[in-house]
Specification:
CATH architecture of the largest domain: 3-Layer(aba) Sandwich
Bound molecules: pyridoxal-5'-phosphate
Order of helices and strands: HHEEEHHHEHEHEHEHEEEHHHEEHEEEH
Distance between the termini: 45 Å
Strand order of the largest sheet: 4-10-9-8-7-5-6
CATH superfamily of the largest domain: Type I PLP-dependent aspartate aminotransferase-like (Major domain)
Number of domains: 2
Structural class: alpha/beta
Largest sheet: 7 strands, mixed
Radius of gyration: 22 Å
């Protein structure tokens, strides 16, 4: 392949044509993602730009990682300042850094008091990089709690999880995935997880035994088909956790940070979990940053010096971005905006669905909206939308996932709705 024989120019600023970029990935990359046929050269706000400068509306926001929009000026400015001021580099966690301290203070105050039954101690935060690392932190916390407080023999702890959940790709986490492809051939798998149907409180109750230490739940399932549990489900989990002395941890990596119209998705049922996991949008989608947040007492119970760590977890550049993103989130009232814009968008999509032969159901909250299609092949519609300059993808095969940046404006929503109408209604008339 001639182009591969030339030297690779600086990544991201290249004038290498699309065809060659795709060829590079094909030849040198693992083929672990299905891709839409598009190379993005630039991203700003809700828009992505291709080689020729054509713009595409981002209806996916990198699975909620770009909630604040791409390259939000306040977040990028803070990061550039950190780089120019030479306080962005990784320093190892043997020293204190002001970006980490400031970020921890900001992030700890973001959720309400977690696990209040252990006291009104404030929250503490343990930072990592990708989301799944913080899921692992939460698993450690639940297991340690069971071992040290409930007297469960180490190695026997069990955590209740849910069918069709998605919490990431480490061996332990894929061990309890319902998707066989995520696990097959990767054994030995990690024991200690009991999976029950999402939304089924009776099944949860039946799964609880003397070795159960916690419940790990997505308050709404992102990858599991944009699934909303029946009303009362989270409240019921809270009650079961209280009655049986279990830690209830909400994975808000995809549905937190305003995505569903509240700061945290668990707020829809007015419950407070014992721990919460955030990632994706936490650093403005510009660098990986995830956290496990819990009651200060619980964090200190589980983690002591040397019991956990991460070279880049909480490093200065990520913390600068995280602090800036949390301030943007609050200042621009993104959760509130997501609720009002999402209600309008869902109504308009429902009106399209009512005239479409393809739509089984429209569901969602805030700017987290799924369009389940009758054929079960949502990707076919995503490809048609790409031809009309909209980027979205499927969730669980059967559902078109609509989750644009929360900063989307009326004009951008019109752009999206018009194209959804074209592929779901007009092309049949
Ligand atoms: C709910 C949820 N948890 C965990 C993860 C894993 O996050 P990451 O891919 O950053 O490891 C994801 C990613 O999509 C997710 O949606």
């Amino acid at each position: 392949m001639d182009v591969l024989e030339k030297r690779t120019p600086n990544a991201g600023f290249s004038t290498v044509p699309d065809k060659s970029i795709m060829a590079y990935e094909e030849q040198f990359g693992a083929h672990h993602y299905e891709r839409l046929h598009m190379v993005v050269r630039r991203a700003r706000g809700c828009w992505l730009f291709d080689e020729k400068g054509n713009r595409y509306l981002d209806g996916l926001a990198a699975y909620s990682a770009a909630n604040t929009g791409h390259h939000h000026p306040a977040i990028t400015t803070a990061m550039i300042k950190a780089l120019k001021g030479e306080f962005a580099s990784v320093l190892s966690n043997v020293v204190y850094t002001d970006p980490l301290g400031l970020f921890l203070a900001e992030a700890a105050r973001f959720p309400p008091q977690l696990a209040e039954r252990f006291g009104n101690n404030g929250n503490k935060v343990l930072p990592k990089n990708g989301g799944v690392e913080s899921v692992e932190t939460a698993i450690k916390a639940m297991r340690y709690y069971g071992y040290s407080q409930k007297g469960i023999r180490d190695g026997n702890q069990e955590i209740i999880v849910f069918a069709n959940s998605f919490h990431g790709r480490t061996i332990s986490v894929v061990s309890f995935s319902s998707t066989e492809k995520y696990r097959q051939g990767f054994g030995p798998l990690t024991p200690g997880f009991v999976s029950v149907a999402f939304g089924d409180l009776f099944a949860v109750k039946n799964a609880i035994n003397a070795n159960t230490c916690g419940i790990l739940v997505e308050p709404m399932q992102g990858e599991g088909g944009m699934a909303i549990p029946p009303k009362g489900f989270l409240k019921g989990l809270r009650q079961l956790a209280d009655e049986n002395d279990l830690l209830l941890v909400c994975d808000e990596i995809q549905v937190g940070m305003g995505r569903t119209g509240k700061d945290f998705c668990f707020e829809h049922e007015e419950i407070v979990p014992d721990g919460v996991i955030l990632g994706k949008a936490l650093a403005g989608g510009l660098v990986p940053l995830s956290v496990f947040i819990t009651n200060a007492w619980l964090m200190d119970l589980v983690f002591s010096k040397g019991s956990d760590g991460s070279t880049f977890g909480g490093y200065p550049l990520a913390c600068v971005a995280g602090t800036a993103a949390l301030r943007v989130f609050e200042k621009e009232q993104l959760a509130k905006g997501s609720a009002t814009k999402g209600a309008v968008l869902k109504q308009r999509i429902q009106a399209i669905a009512d005239r479409s032969p393809h739509v089984k159901e429209v569901r969602g909250k805030g700017l987290f909206i799924g369009i389940e299609v009758n054929s079960g092949n949502a990707m076919a519609f995503c490809k048609k939308l790409l031809d009309l300059n909209v980027i979205v993808n499927d969730s669980h095969g059967h559902t078109i996932r609509i989750s644009p940046p929360l900063i989307i404006n009326d004009h951008e929503m019109d752009f999206l709705v018009k194209r959804l109408e074209t592929v779901l209604v007009d092309e049949n008339s």
